[in-house]
Amino acid sequence: MREFGTSLVDELANLILKQNMKLITEKRLKIYLKYDGDTDMFEYNATEQEMFELYGEVWKQIESFIQDINLIKKGLVSKDYENRVNEKIYNLCDSVHTIELLYEIAYAK
After folding, report:
1. pTM for the complete prediction?
2. CA 9 to each of CA 4, 14, 15, 89, 90: distance values in angstroms, whole numbers, following the listed order
3. Average pLDDT over residues 82-106
């Protein structure tokens, strides 16, 4: 059984991407940091607004970027993979400051 609202979340993420809106923002990263990347803590304590901002696909993408950045940092990926990750980060983050914050979060883990 799929989770309630999953298809709506996926549709929202696709709509955002189609409209060239940026999925990862400083505001969303700060919410992620507030809960220290802990999904349980987020699910039990987040406000309705925070849940709206940091819906499942955004959380998953932040986690994926953090994992990829750490693999790159450790030299465990090819240059081609690194370039693809960096391009995706550039395309999905709303500013250079957001990208810098994403890297800070990844390096702290």
Report:
1. 0.80
2. 10, 9, 10, 20, 22
3. 96
